[in-house]
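This is your field. Pick holes in the following sequence-structure pair:
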Amino acid sequence: MKLRPLADRVVVKRTKEEEKTKGGIIIPDSAKEKPIEGLVIAVGNGKVLKDGKVRACEVKVGDRVLFGKYTGTEVKVEGEEHVLLREEEILAVYAK
């Protein structure tokens, strides 16, 4: 990847959206909501604290995470959509 996030920022690739409901109804593009979960692609070095020390990020590349619906900044990298978030905007990490 050609994008390296700074400080406590994280690059997340959203998971695929469901094309159909459980009942078999196809969902049109205009009615789909953006997924609120994704895969961590890149992680910054960590947050710089007031005393100058760096606290490393808790999330790692490869983690599946949940984040808020309207958080982060959408960016396009190498033709693919990604979300750039601060670590504090991540709500949860799926257990492995």
